[in-house]
């Protein structure tokens, strides 16, 4: 990975998957809202590490290409993502694997990536250490987001956070390549404190740019389904682990217990009201007959 191309390859890998996941999660999210609006029933949004088997094939092939081009230096970093792709492919083909093994495999792959990059810093220059430390931070954020999505598998924001972190890794791989191995210059960026602070600011700007990019893609899907959503009521049913959490129009969040108590209270109230109305109508009828 000690070249511009060596950083370009994994950066492209993470960018392509990040953009794909952005399109998929917004498509599934607004499809859930539209189905809820048309059927008048709450829909479920479910997160997955791989949404199609072709995605798993691409993950396996691209990581193998990375291993071949980088050989031993990239073997430890890439073969775990190949293993993740194989597990996802087995799940798509219906193999009876334990529930959550896809998230476990992806978590271990990201953890191994971060661990190897951490010990990759020995004997490096201060600039090299600085940019790779920021890369390790993005890897840690990716690991945390995957673990959160593993727990909150039925929440849109879980998938959103994982996609943000994946895109951040991709963009920062490109940035590291341009900083350490600039293709249009013979020497890397200077190692002054001011330039390192500027690099840190660039890292934060990329996070903001990623959120803007994803928001733009989300707004495209919203405009596509705006008429249906504006003329119909809708709700998405999010599940925490195995329990249901109902988010009515993404605003009122109640757990199962509160939701059931509210529903039973409404039913009992309606029963009392109907009983009173029935008694009142009986009294009125009796008075009329008298």
Notable characteristics:
290 residues; mainly alpha; 2 domains; four-stranded mixed beta sheet; 75% helix; globular; disordered C terminus
At a glance:
The protein has two domains: 4-231, no CATH class; 255-289.
Secondary structure elements and pairings:
Layout (H helix, E strand, L loop, with lengths): L3 H36 L3 E2 L8 H18 L1 H21 L8 H18 L7 H26 L4 H25 L12 H39 L4 E5 L2 E6 L3 E3 L1 H34 L1
Parallel strand pairs: 1-2
Antiparallel strand pairs: 2-3, 3-4
Helix pairs in contact: 1-2, 1-6, 1-7, 2-3, 3-4, 4-5, 5-6, 5-7, 6-7
- Element pattern in H and E: HEHHHHHHEEEH
Helix content: over 70%
Give the overall average pLDDT.
77
Across the major sheet, the strand order is: 1-2-3-4
- The domain count comes to 2
Question: What features would you describe in this structure?
Answer:
Strands 1-2-3-4 form a four-stranded mixed sheet. It has helices spanning 4-39, 53-70, 72-92, 101-118, 126-151, 156-180, 193-231, 256-289, and strands at 43-44, 236-240, 243-248, 252-254. The protein is mainly α and 290 residues long. It contains eight helices and four strands; from the N terminus they run αβααααααβββα. It has two domains: 4-231, no CATH class; 255-289.
